[in-house]
Amino acid sequence: MSFYFTKYEDRVPEPPLPHSVSRELLWQYLAVINLTLGAWYIWWRWTSSLNYDALWYAVPLAIAETGAYIGLCFFTFNLWKVEDTPQKTPPTKLSEIVDYEPQEDRPIKVDMFFPTYDEDPELVRLSLLDAKNVSYPGPIDIEIHVLDDGGRDDMKQVADEEGVNYITREGNIGFKAGNLRNAMEQTMGDIIVICDADTRPFPTILEHTMGYFTDSRVAWVQTPQWFFDLPEGETLPDSLGRYLKTPGRWVGKAVEKVIGPVRLGEDPFVNDPKMFYDVIQRRRNWCNASFCCGAGSLHRRNAVMEGALKSYAEQIDVQTVKASKKIRKITGEKNLNKGTERRLKKSIIHEEEFTPYRFHVSEDIYTSIILHSDQDRNWKSVMHPEVESKMLSPQDLLTWTIQRFKYAGGTLDIAKNDNPVFRKGMSLPQRMMYATTIWSYIGGIWNAIFLTAPLIYLFFAIAPVQSYSLDFYLHILPFLIMTELAFMVGGWGLAGYPSKASYLAFFPTNLKALWTVIKGEKISFPVTPKDRQEGNFLHLIIPQLSIIILTIVGITFAWWHYAHGSVSYDINGVLLNTFWGINNILALSGIVVAATWKPRGEK
């Protein structure tokens, strides 16, 4: 079996970021100063700086800055502190993970699920081989299951050859969630390990995580997803040497001596999830708000089933009330008689789907919301800090866009129809954490404004502020500088600029997802391709390319007019908007590189 990622098989993940109490205190100190400076700046923007001659431009930009500041407040809360969840010795008996005395204190049963639809069976085989190597320091029952929604003979053959259970079904209602439901109906594991077709579990995945379940309120454990096939790029001397031979290598080495190692083409799609899992998700543990991300997660079966039953009952009640109101509106009756209500409810029970995992494009986070809001059980979630599996990353911009659209659209659809911020049973910190996730996807609105705003001045010499005066710089510069300083500390040394640039460049996909949800359209369930898609992807970045070109033209236009004595432009405005525009160009250039990127050796 030869795949493009074969050469990366020996890679190992980095260890979790070490927790430092002193660094955390410094981060919290800087964060408070930063939010104070930000509030001062936003207050000044609304009360003392608006250009009343161009409110059509000044007000939207001030709204965008306010929205971004609210997002900064949420994100600061998210990163406030680290509190890893302790765990005990890995359990072996059922009595060690439940809060009742079982009739039969048998070994714990673990089901490992590998849902698949159209992935290469040989790719799935690699996942099965690694799953068979999972070890445990005690006698438990581990069963591996291939959940094939494609009903393929060659997939069944692979499962038979590897000695694992093969499960399929007629049709694929509910897609992945429906596939998981079908498998749960045919298995009896106490703990379920959810994998994707390309999830390659490490031998330690159970040994390092099962101890959390000795707390009978732990409903699921999420492990970090690690993409072991991220392009490593090439050194600057090697890259320049390919074009300029020996002189190019000399130049590259000279540059690296000044600024340090430089790798070109490294992780072009900014897929490295370390910031998300090791910083963002891990810092939600303290308030029990880290959410499930699907692959690499372990679930307590009875928690998922209990949550599903309660959610099912809630949905029936909601649909019954809605149907009752509709009937009473048509008939003019104030109340329905009990017989009619019973028949109505019975009809709705037949129509409503019962499923452990919601039939939703983001069934993982939806399950988290349902369990986190269960007031009776007070289920806990755990973000385990160590990587326990390896996966494949998107290798082209089309795949990247499909994946990001699903993430954004799924989250926004939940926010519209069953918003966790207003759902009963959530604690205030949990609501804040879910609000952080939702708000980040709404951010496409102000990102679009920030990217286009400097064009107004560059082409028309219209400023959003009364003047680019000393007062303006005294308010904005301390805030911007402190923001960078605070998050350099708060990010535990991880490079933050690639993530910020990617988030900014993500705005068209974000806006498309937001508009799709507003229109009431369903977010589709496309399977994220596991192979590199061939073709020209420049059509996917027309908005970003347009902004880059317009910004370059605008900078040239503004400086030409200023050089020729135009009284409309002043040096402060031209300089500030030039730097702003250059920052936007640099932030968007990454996605242009991603659209044209090809692995070494491809033409």
TrEMBL record:
Its main location: membrane. GO terms for molecular function: cellulose synthase (UDP-forming) activity. The chain crosses the membrane at residues 25-43, 55-80, 438-460, 472-495, 538-562, 574-597. It is an enzyme of class 2 (transferase). It is found in: Membrane. Gene3D superfamilies: Spore Coat Polysaccharide Biosynthesis Protein SpsA, Chain A. GO terms for cellular component: plasma membrane. Pathway: Glycan metabolism. Its EC number is 2.4.1.12. Residues 115-272 form the Glycosyltransferase 2-like domain. Keywords: Glycosyltransferase, Membrane, Transferase, Transmembrane, Transmembrane helix. It is a multi-pass membrane protein. PANTHER family: CELLULOSE SYNTHASE CATALYTIC SUBUNIT A [UDP-FORMING]. This is Cellulose synthase (UDP-forming) (EC). The lineage of its organism: Bacteria, Pseudomonadati, Pseudomonadota, Gammaproteobacteria, Thiotrichales.
